[in-house]
Amino acid sequence: MKIFILIVFLALLAGCGTVTSEIIPSGNDTYFISGHGYAQKGPEAMTELYKGANAYCQNMGKKFLPVASSSQDFDLYSSSVNMHFRCLPTGDPELERPVMKTE
């Protein structure tokens, strides 16, 4: 019985996480990504968006700059997160002191 409970728990745990959209260009050097957290609150889901956006910019040889984000928790088990960000070349003046907007 203990093994059955452990298997069920691990199966439920494996289903937890954030499902993110593809990254969509939304302007000059500006992109949009969204995600839905399952068994996660907004901050945890937002962390996954930051990781994905940062990796996207790094793959282009650029630096990640968050522009605006929003987060909404629906209940104890799900959330929705959105973020606009820019991928800018190293040394771009906008990277000096970023201004983040919350939508």
Rounded average pLDDT: 79
How many DSSP-defined strands? 6
Tally the structural domains: 1
Shape: elongated
* Uncertain parts: 1-15
Termini, distance in Å? Answer: 48 Å
Measured on Cα atoms, how large is the radius of gyration?
A: 17 Å
Strand content: 35-45%
Helix content: 25-40%
Instruction: Give me the number of helical elements.
Output: 2
Largest sheet: 6 strands, mixed
SSE class:
alpha+beta
Element-by-element helix/strand order: HEEEHEEE
Describe the protein.
With 103 residues, the chain is α+β, with helices and mostly antiparallel strands. It has one domain. The chain is built from 2 helices and 6 strands. The chain has helices at residues 2-14, 42-59; strands at 17-20, 24-27, 30-38, 63-75, 78-88, 101-102. Strands 1, 2, 3, 4, 5 and 6 form a 6-stranded mixed β-sheet that branches. The protein is elongated and about 40 Å long.
